[in-house]
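Is this the right way to post structure tokens for a design question? Let me know if I should format differently. Anyway, here goes:
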């Protein structure tokens, strides 16, 4: 009555878990022999991320609940504003598209949108700081900071640990808390995470996003320096992770102390500081291009993207010529609520125009059709995409790679999808449209001049080929893998003219292979039996044969090509699996053969690049 019940509180937004929390706590107390309550349990039906105001209960005007709900909110507001909270624990929701968009909820994360030091605003055009879990961390930090001491213990999305755009948040947390402990449970299916030995890594929940257990401790003392970071990793299968967590306590986990290193202040070990300093001496692809952009975001691939141009036109015609409700659109094409609602509103503005039906790079070696119309594509990125047509090819690269595979680097002749290489795929064009629609170089003159000081005058295309070869160096990828995952990739300046020219030659060879223009790709090393349906039923790899059904297969496919990654995808596998139940045409068969040769030759060239001393 005196030492527990007056000091334990819970905030729950949904009615069902709110009710169950009361029932389960009541049952737990009864099991201990304690049952006589002189006061209610401190579990309140409220939204933690709503400002402490009385709700009107408008959803239940006829059920006599309005006053009760308003009273819940009123009592919860006293705890939020006046009660000295020392421990905040929970599993807050993760939602990058936050549903908590009130002024109060948004204001919670404003303190994190700064560069470390707190003087400058965060220099990022896009960040994930509005995610609900970030708002909950901020809410708890405020409660602990107000008390002057305490513990925050959450299990959350683990993206804030090493995503560069969270550097201001990490700085603020280090300024508030004395000790920060991160137990990274990994399990990120989007990144295709594996155990360091290559075995399977699973999530502790049935979700795609990796998670971490975070324990932040604030001591009651004057604090002038940034806090300490302690980190531990837990990989493996779900059952093994459960077993470890059940048997472990805070004291017997092996924590590694992480050095606070500006500007990113990562909450995980990112390698030798000397390696980082050397890596940072290179130029960033984000700095190289005067204009660059993430690829287009359709928000409705099943509706606005297709392998078959005629099927795409028919689908759009059906939509324009018939009454299809928003609900039916969502069901039929598996569209999100916002996108379905948006295209229904835009329907009168949409016209089928051959000029807008374009081939675009959807995935590695997988071009598809879409309709380049701002009324159909959610994020059209027109400022950069309009420049693609004046370039023979463009370079594709990632920022903050979502894959644990090597850095996603690719080339395209087309407008690109935002997930072309698996993560957030960006496009950089060699040339752009300048004043009076004149063609102009789209490269940072300072970087170009510095390269030319070393290697003398060169063609702009040579710089592209130099970059492409560098980022296909296995040694470079491995040595700087952690840094390549956390921001736009950096490339070292050339050592001398001879090294530059050697890498340019390799880069050009790779470019021609990946655009399927190299003479080598005509040397088909695969065969395809002609007696069959050509229908892809089940894709399997056995002893150098890629079966597409029980009878037919591509033969002599090297294992290296079958398993080869471009960013987060294995093109030799994904291209076929994405076409299950379709009939392969002669053009499809030829394309797949060329792809296998390109991937096989890429592996050979990468080994040759490693003979050059890039590091």
């Amino acid at each position: 009555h005196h030492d527990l019940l007056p000091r334990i509180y819970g905030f729950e937004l949904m009615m069902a878990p709110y009710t169950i929390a009361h029932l389960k706590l009541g049952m737990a107390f009864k099991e201990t022999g304690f049952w006589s309550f002189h006061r209610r349990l401190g579990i309140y039906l409220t939204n933690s991320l709503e400002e402490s105001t009385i709700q009107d209960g408008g959803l239940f005007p006829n059920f006599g609940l309005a006053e009760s709900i308003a009273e819940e909110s009123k009592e919860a507001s006293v705890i939020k504003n006046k009660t000295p909270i020392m421990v905040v624990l929970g599993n807050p929701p993760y939602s990058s598209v936050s549903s908590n968009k009130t002024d109060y909820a948004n204001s919670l994360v404003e303190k994190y949108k700064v560069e470390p030091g707190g003087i400058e605003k965060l220099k990022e055009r896009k960040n994930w700081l509005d995610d609900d879990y970030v708002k909950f961390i901020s809410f708890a930090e405020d409660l602990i900071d107000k008390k002057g001491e305490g513990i925050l213990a959450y299990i959350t999305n683990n993206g804030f640990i090493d995503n560069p755009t969270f550097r201001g948040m990490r700085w603020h947390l280090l300024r508030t808390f004395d000790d920060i402990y991160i137990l990274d449970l990994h399990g990120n299916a989007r990144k295709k995470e594996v155990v360091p030995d290559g075995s399977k890594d699973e999530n502790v929940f049935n979700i795609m996003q990796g998670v971490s257990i975070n324990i932040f401790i604030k001591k009651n003392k004057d604090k002038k320096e940034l806090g300490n970071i302690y980190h531990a990793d837990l990989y493996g299968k779900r059952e093994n992770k459960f077993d470890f967590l059940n048997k472990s306590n805070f004291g017997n986990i092996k924590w590694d102390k992480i050095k606070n290193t500006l500007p990113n202040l990562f909450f995980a070990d990112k390698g030798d500081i000397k390696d980082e300093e050397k890596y940072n001496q290179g130029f960033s692809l984000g700095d190289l291009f005067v204009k660059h952009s993430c690829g287009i975001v359709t928000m409705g691939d099943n509706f606005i993207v297709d392998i078959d141009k005629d099927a795409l036109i028919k689908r759009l015609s059906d939509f324009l010529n018939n009454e299809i409700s928003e609900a039916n659109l969502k069901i039929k094409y598996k569209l999100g609520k916002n996108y379905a609602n948006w295209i229904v509103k835009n329907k009168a503005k949409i016209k089928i125009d051959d000029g807008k039906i374009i081939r675009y790079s959807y995935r590695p070696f997988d071009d598809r059709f879409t309709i380049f119309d701002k009324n159909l594509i959610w994020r059209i990125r027109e400022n950069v995409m309009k420049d693609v047509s004046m370039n023979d090819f463009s370079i594709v690269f990632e920022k903050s790679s979502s894959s644990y595979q090597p850095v996603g680097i690719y080339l395209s002749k087309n407008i690109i999808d935002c997930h072309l290489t698996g993560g957030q795929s960006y496009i950089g064009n060699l040339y752009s449209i300048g004043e009076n629609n004149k063609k102009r170089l789209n490269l940072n003159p300072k970087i170009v001049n510095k390269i030319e000081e070393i290697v003398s005058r060169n063609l702009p295309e040579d710089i592209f080929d130099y970059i492409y070869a560098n980022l296909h160096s296995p040694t470079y990828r491995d040595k700087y893998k952690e840094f390549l995952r956390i921001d736009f990739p950096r490339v070292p300046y050339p050592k001398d003219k001879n090294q530059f020219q050697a890498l340019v030659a390799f880069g050009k060879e790779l470019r021609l292979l990946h655009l399927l223009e190299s003479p080598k790709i005509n040397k088909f090393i695969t065969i395809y039996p002609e007696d069959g349906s050509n229908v892809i039923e089940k894709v399997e790899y056995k002893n150098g044969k890629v079966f597409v059904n029980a009878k037919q297969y591509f033969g002599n496919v090297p294992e290296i090509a079958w398993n080869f990654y471009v960013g987060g995808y294995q093109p030799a596998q994904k291209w076929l699996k994405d076409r299950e139940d379709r009939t392969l045409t002669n053009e499809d068969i030829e394309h797949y053969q060329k792809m296998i040769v390109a991937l096989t030759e890429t592996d050979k060239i990468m080994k040759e690049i490693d003979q050059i001393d890039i590091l």
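Format looks fine. Someone answered above. Worth noting: The CA atoms of residues 188 and 210 lie 4 Å apart. The chain has a mean pLDDT of 90.
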